[in-house]
Design a protein that fits this description.
10 strands; 2 domains; two-stranded antiparallel ribbon
């Protein structure tokens, strides 16, 4: 996706050069300067929008992202955002899974809600994480698998509808957790976040930074244009045949049931 964005940006730059060259030849230097001023003001406006969106999300996440498990209050549910691993290593996968395991083994969470997509047999976000949690001894009745979590927004919608709890702990990298906390706030979900380790490769961190700035603009627009209730109704319609294995917990009991979204 990032490669596509970069190609589009390069094509727009080339197009702008040809347009400005044509403007200069036809209308002269004054028109060229006017065009550059207008383009500059447009860029400043876009930068301002991105800054405001970024600050809005940062305020929503302020004081709710934690880097150390011992600083987190305990909660029943951990929301593990899915990511896949295929034939190549995926640091996001490894660090998110390690963070979820740490929270479970230290008693910070009792149940895990794994949400993502199983796109094809070589890229299984949910099933891969589910098997990894079973391998370290988490009982299957304490794991919820949501294969309809196509993005952060839908994952939190499902968690809000299906998790029988008052507080959840979101598990992902910090840049992702901040945006997820903004969504959670808009959906009136009481949430904290535990930050998994970032990618160790510098240019991948830079890519994440650039991508996240655009994703935050999208998050603000999405919140302004669609209510959670309407979005959930749409998701139910789109995934009416999706079976979610749901585990509900209370202080002195536990039970499991299957729920079909429809």
């Amino acid at each position: 996706m990032m490669t596509v964005v970069l190609i589009i940006v390069l094509l727009l730059i080339v197009l702008a050069i040809f347009v400005l060259r044509g403007v200069y030849r036809r209308w002269g230097a004054v028109a060229l300067v006017a065009g550059l001023v207008i383009a500059g003001l447009g860029c400043l406006g876009l930068a301002g929008v991105m800054y405001c969106c970024d600050r809005t999300i940062m305020r929503a996440a302020d004081g709710r992202c934690f880097d150390r498990a011992e600083d987190l209050p305990a909660s029943q549910w951990g929301i593990l955002f899915g990511t896949g691993r295929n034939r190549r290593a995926n640091e996001y996968y490894d660090s998110r899974l390690a963070a979820a395991i740490e929270l479970y083994q230290t008693g910070k969470i009792s149940f895990v809600f794994i949400s993502g997509e199983n796109l094809h047999k070589d890229y299984q976000e949910v099933d891969s994480m589910y098997q990894a949690m079973l391998a370290i001894g988490v009982p299957p009745e304490r794991i919820v698998c949501d294969t309809a979590g196509r993005d952060t927004y839908s994952t939190l919608l499902h968690a809000r509808e299906l998790a029988d709890t008052t507080r959840v702990i979101l598990i992902s990298q910090r840049f992702h957790n901040e945006r997820a906390l903004y969504y959670a706030e808009q959906m009136q979900i009481d949430a904290l976040a535990y930050n998994a380790a970032p990618n160790s490769v510098w240019y991948k961190r830079l890519r994440d930074y650039a991508r996240e700035k655009l994703a935050r603009v999208k998050a603000i627009l999405k919140n302004q244009l669609a209510s959670p209730a309407a979005a959930l109704a749409e998701l139910k319609q789109q995934h009416e045949t999706t079976l979610l294995h749901i585990s509900f917990a209370a202080a002195n009991r536990s039970k499991a049931q299957d729920l079909r979204l429809r």
